[in-house]
Every structure is written in C-alpha cells, then in structure tokens.
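Subject: two folds for Thursday's group meeting

Dear M.,

Sorry for the delay on this. The cluster queue was jammed most of the week, so I only got both jobs back this morning. I'm pasting them in the order they finished. Each block is the input sequence followed by the predicted structure tokens. Could you check whether the formatting survives your parser before we put anything on slides? The first protein is the one we discussed after the seminar.
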Amino acid sequence: MRALKTVILSAALALGIGGTALASGGVHIPAQDWPHSGVFGTIDKQSAQRGFQIYKEVCSTCHSMRLVPIRTLAGIGFTEAQIKDIAAGYEVTDGPNDAGEMFQRPAVPADRFPKPFPNDNAARAANGGALPPDLSLIAKARVGGEDYLYAFLTGFEDPAPADVTLMPGMNYNKYFPGHQVGMPNILMPDGVTYADGTKATVEQQAHDIATFLTFVAEPHLDARKQMGVKVILFLIVFAGLMYATKRQLWSGLH
C-alpha cells in the first residue's frame, strides 16, 4: 500500500496538484486563479481564443511562435474553416520552385506561425538591441509559468519609483528580475476589441494571453490530465482487487 501511495502522489504532482514556484529572480509572483489548475481543471477555450486575438493583434509584431503549427488552434475551439482563414492571413516562405528560387505563398494550417523578423539580427535592430523571446514555450520556460506572465504584463509602472534610475531605453516592471526591461508596456485598457464583447481591461488581457500561451506550450494538457485521472482510478481499483485477492488466497492459513 505504501508503494501505491507513492505512485498516486507522483501522478498527482504530474497532474498539477502540487504548488508551482511563485518566485523568479528573487521577485515574489502573486498566484492567480486559473481554470486549468488542479487535477480536473481544463483550459478556458474562450479565454484562450481571446488570448490568441491579443497575440495576433499586439504581440506578433515582435514575438514569434515558431514551434507552433497554426492547426494547433483547433484545441481551443476554432473550426477547420476558421483555421484555414487564419492561416491564409499569413505568408510563409516556400520553395525552391522549378527555377530554383524561394517564393512566398499563403500559409496553410500545417504551417507554423511565421516569424515577424527574418533573423535575430533584424529583430535586435528593430528593438533597440533587445531580442524578443519566442513565445512557443514561454509559459514553461519561466519560473511561475502563467502566474509570472500575468504578473509581468500587469507589472509595468510609469513613472518608475523615485529611488530607481532607469537605463536608457529601459522600462520599469516590478515583477521582472532587476525591474528593468527593454519591452514597453503593450497592454492598454480597451487596447483590443474582443470579438465576444468581453471588456478588455489590462488584467483581462493579461489573463487571456497567459491562458493562450499556457495552451500553446502544452496543447495536450487537458488530455494528459484526463489520462492521469484514469490511471489513478485504475491503480486504486487494481490495488483493491489485489488486496481482496491476497485476503482470499491467505484466508485458509489463518
């Protein structure tokens, strides 16, 4: 039974029962309430769709998602027709053609989201020397995950505190390690008009983009949790059957 408890505990931690780290670089990151937290939590698809809208309209001018196929959007409720329309709005480089030349064509769902810059040097030149990070796995790469993303996006202060001297071109963010970051505050009240009519406060936008980036970093999160629950239930039933079998086999010796 002790071994079974160990297995169940390990599975529970993998499903997200255990707490997440809430500090990054010594900065305390407040915990948020996420629908996808816990064993039975699932991605809020409406929130993730709104988060994709923010990525497309705001974030994609600087940040890439080069590891994410466009068809991944099916996991948050977009239909096949909608995904084809979204893909057609992008152009990707393909080739070579019969003349040996590369060419541009409209993207298809199987293509990955195109990068906003042709290379890192071009990205740095357009952003004052800073390289905008790729967002494909950002929710997994940052300590605190979606809590950190939410805190970062809502942590800009202008002007900076009186005791802080910002370096040229830097912006103050109370949740960023060191508190100075090259990225400006990109979220403004009503900065986007949500298709579903949701009020686009800064906090709502930050919550939605964090949900979306959590999804793209682990698009099979919901399926993994469902499988984990099934495994735990199976182990519990199996342990009960083995215990009953053991009692039956050894009952004649007592």
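Second protein, same layout:
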Amino acid sequence: LISKDFEYAEVAVDGDADGEVAAGGKVSLKPKLRAGVAYTRDWYNLAADLDLTENEALAFEDPTQYLSVGGEVDLAGWAQLRAGLRTNLAGESNVVSLGAGVSPFGIHFDLAAMMDVSDPEKELGLALETGFYF
C-alpha cells in the first residue's frame, strides 16, 4: 500500500581483470489497485478483474492496465474446462487462455495454454499442474 524506492549500488564484475563495474540505479515500487467480481454456481464460475491504475513497466516492457474475464465449467465434479481473455487497455496485447483439468480419485491434472493473439511471438505459454487432495 506504500510506495518505496530501492537503490542498488555499483558493483565490480567478478572475474574481470579490467575492473569493469556494473552500474547502479533505482527501482520504484508503487501500489497497484485492482477490482474484481465473480459469480459462482454449482457447476460454473465467471469472473472479471480490472486494473484501476496504469502500471508502469519495470524494464523495457510497455505500461499495462489489464481487463481480464474468464469462466470455468465443472463437469460432474471431476473435469473442468476454462477459457479467458486478458486485454491491455494501455497497449495492444490480447491474451487468450484455455485450460482443462481432471480430478479423479483425489489426484488432479491440469493443462493450460495461453497466447497473445495480437503477436503470438510476444507471449506464448503452456502450463501443466498436478496435485493431490486428501
């Protein structure tokens, strides 16, 4: 909730006989405000989130202000299907995500994929998760 600046010092590069130094600098961390809403029923969930403030990039990225919407359908309590969309209101990225999970006998497997439809080479991902319920 409180902004803070962190400074980092110049440091000698290890193993460099020429005495090179990595430059120092400053990183500023500021609060990010986000609002969300969700609707849950027995067999489906719907959710939406909105960044209320534009988020400054830490390095070479563009600023972001995301609007995300998504939903999940639970089939018979052991199979889940998900879809979502995240758009950057401060830029041009539109990321689509799809996922599926199965949870038989206390074991959970989940596979998800995401891609920036505006520029697939910019953002592309795949995730596999496993878990156990007891």
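Two things I noticed about the second structure. DSSP finds no helices and eleven strands in the chain. The mean pLDDT is 89.

Cheers,
T.
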